[in-house]
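Thread: quick sanity check before group meeting

JM: Hey all, I'm pulling together slides for Thursday and realized we never actually wrote out the predicted structure for the chain we discussed last week. Dropping the sequence here so it's in one place. If anyone has concerns about the input, flag it before I start.
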Amino acid sequence: MMNSQNIKNVYVKLVCDAINKVNKEYFNIKVAGAGSEKRRERVFCYELYHCMRKLQEELQEEYLTINGEIDKSGHLEIEGKYNPDFVIHRQGSMESNEVVVEVKCNFNKAGIKKDFRTIKKMMKCGKYKIGVFVLIGYDMNCFKEKIFSEINNGINRNNVYVFCKKNNDSPAEVVTLDELNK
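JM (edit): ok, ran it. Output follows.
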């Protein structure tokens, strides 16, 4: 398992560092009147986007743009309906598509499989160099034991990262699918 210091790609490292900067109130939100907390993917993603953009500005790595929820329906080179949570790319060009990111805040096998299909499609047809899957509220052992074998086929395992962050106090765990396969 690696940490953010071992990640060579500046944008994958940026995603990892941003995940670790998401504040507790965005990791779990308090439910009014219930005295409990709940994870909400959109709330987490909006704050993750904010943290990624702040880090991008600090690093002066603004050659590429971070966009959220770009609807790829009707795209000339990407067939189907795909809305990745985030893409890091040069707008208007297929030559500088760097990272596609999908995020899940609940362990829904169908949803996770759909996210990996999106990553695979965006890497193949959208020419994204790297795929990132982020699982919030669960650790890497859970990911490996419960879903890894079902999403591990037909995807470039060296260029797909999995980030798991069990709780707000723990750092994100990071591996490539290839490393999980060993």
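AS: nice. Residues 4-181 form a domain with the Restriction Endonuclease fold (CATH 3.40.91). The chain has seven helices and eight strands.
JM: adding both to the slides.
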